């Protein structure tokens, strides 16, 4: 899901830089109010976790690969704004140091995986869990949170790639950037995330939440008083 | 550091040691790049041409450790596996560093 350099034209990557920078500014303000020294190590761990989980490429035999992102579970455990920051840090490191995702596409990739994903995941979790504070309903909420968060992020990515042939065409009528239209990009990204990568993300989210509930119940942001004040 | 945090850090270090699964499994199942992340050569094979704008932007940045591989193209499997693990540890280190820098600047402004 890391869009490389060259796949998006400036009409797409410039505005998405703007959007992501806006979210970073809000995230910084939100976190300023809530960040206590106690949380800093968890923020670092969240970033490290997201970095590592993304290294586990899952193969579709004879096809493509994909991976979980961890943004959903970070949003549940530490809050969506913290997830924005943690996953953005990871995506920037990946692009700058490892060439994973383009430099021009940092805004787009952060928007998809570090903004859309944590908020969708967080919203789904809160919605599905309802008033329950434990039990199987919480596990289902966590699974769906990771699953749908990654799926929606993949759809945003597919949309950004798929509109390129519509908005940027050379004089010869050939696409200038990502070549495949929406009719190909959306199904390709949707299917692989529906049937494989989304399930991986859902399981990771569910198991980690379970672990935290067992050992450090008070830490879980989505179940704490903090989540009510925003 | 609390006992719980210590456990989590150990978990992350174990994860870093296991990362090579993320390159070995795709190789075993002959799975290639993620959708929409093809290199120039692969793209030319798929389309018969390389889009003009894409060609211009593709090499805009030369990452120091491209593809999590210290050995460059044509590196042996052993080098790639060790590079991948080293990249995992490096990633942990850089994440910690940046998060502490950001947290410091945020909390300074806050107080």
Would you summarize the structure shown here?
The complex is a heterodimer of chains A (230) and B (111). Chain A has 230 residues and is mostly helical.
Describe the structure.
The complex is a heterodimer of chains A (230) and B (111). Chain A is mostly helical and 230 residues long. Chain A has a single domain (10-229), classed as Orthogonal Bundle (Arp2/3 complex 21 kDa subunit ARPC3). Chain A has helices spanning 10-34, 40-53, 71-78, 80-98, 106-129, 136-162, 164-167, 182-215, 226-229; strands spanning 58-59, 65-66. Chain A has a two-stranded antiparallel sheet with strand order 1-2. In chain A, a hairpin with a 5-residue loop joins β1 and β2. In chain A, α1 crosses α5 (106-129), α2 crosses α4 (80-98) and α3 (71-78) packs across α8. With 111 residues, chain B is an all-alpha fold. Chain B has one domain. Helix content of chain B is 66%, strand content 0%. Chain B is built from 5 helices and no strands. Chain B has helices at residues 3-18, 21-28, 40-47, 52-58, 77-110. In chain B, α1 runs antiparallel to α5. Chain B is extended. Classes of the chains: A mainly alpha (230), B mainly alpha (111). Chains A and B meet through α1, α2, β1, β2 and α4 of A and α1, α2, α4 and α5 of B.
Q: Keywords, please?
A:
heterodimer; A: 230 residues; mainly alpha; Arp2/3 complex 21 kDa subunit ARPC3; two-stranded antiparallel ribbon; 9 helices; 2 strands; 69% helix; B: 111 residues; 66% helix; extended
Helix content of chain A: 55-70%
Count of helical stretches of chain A: 9
* Rg on CA atoms of chain A, Å: 18 Å
Q: Give unreliable regions of chain B as ranges.
A: none
Topology of this protein?
The complex is a heterodimer of chains A (230) and B (111).
Chain A: H1 10-34, H2 40-53, E1 58-59, E2 65-66, H3 71-78, H4 80-98, H5 106-129, H6 136-162, H7 164-167, H8 182-215, H9 226-229
Antiparallel strand pairs in A: 1-2
Helix pairs in contact in A: 1-4, 1-5, 2-4, 3-4, 3-5, 3-6, 3-8, 4-5, 5-6, 6-8
Chain B: H1 3-18, H2 21-28, H3 40-47, H4 52-58, H5 77-110
Helix pairs in contact in B: 1-5
């Amino acid at each position: 899901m890391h869009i490389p350099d060259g796949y998006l034209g400036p009409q797409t990557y410039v505005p998405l830089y703007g959007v992501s920078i806006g979210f970073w500014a809000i995230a910084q303000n939100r976190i300023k109010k809530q960040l206590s020294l106690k949380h800093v190590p968890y923020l670092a761990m969240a970033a490290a976790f997201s970095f590592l989980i993304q290294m586990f490429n899952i193969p579709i035999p004879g096809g493509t690969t994909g991976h979980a992102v961890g943004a959903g579970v970070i949003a549940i455990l530490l809050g969506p704004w913290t997830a924005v920051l943690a996953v953005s840090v990871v995506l920037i490191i990946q692009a700058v140091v490892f060439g994973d995702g383009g430099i021009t596409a940092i805004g787009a990739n952060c928007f998809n995986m570090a903004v859309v994903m944590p908020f969708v995941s967080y919203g789904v979790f809160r919605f599905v869990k309802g008033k329950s504070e434990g039990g199987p309903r919480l596990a289902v909420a966590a699974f769906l949170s990771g699953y749908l968060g990654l799926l929606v992020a993949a759809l945003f990515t597919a949309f950004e790639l798929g509109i390129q042939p519509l908005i940027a065409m050379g004089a010869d009528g050939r696409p200038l950037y990502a070549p495949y239209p929406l009719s190909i990009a959306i199904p390709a990204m949707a299917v692989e995330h529906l049937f494989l990568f989304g399930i991986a993300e859902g399981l990771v989210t569910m198991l980690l939440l379970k672990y935290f509930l067992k050992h450090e119940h008070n830490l879980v942001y989505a179940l704490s008083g903090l989540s009510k004040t925003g | 550091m609390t006992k719980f945090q210590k456990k989590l850090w150990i978990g992350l270090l174990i994860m870093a040691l296991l990362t090579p699964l993320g390159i070995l499994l795709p190789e075993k199942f002959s799975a290639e790049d993620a959708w929409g992340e093809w290199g120039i050569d692969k793209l030319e094979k798929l389309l018969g041409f390389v889009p003009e704008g894409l060609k211009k932007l593709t090499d805009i940045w030369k990452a120091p450790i491209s593809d999590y591989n210290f050995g460059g193209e044509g590196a042996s499997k052993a080098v790639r596996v060790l590079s991948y693990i080293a990249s995992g540890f490096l990633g942990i280190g850089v994440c910690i560093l940046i998060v502490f820098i950001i947290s410091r600047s945020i909390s300074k402004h806050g107080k």
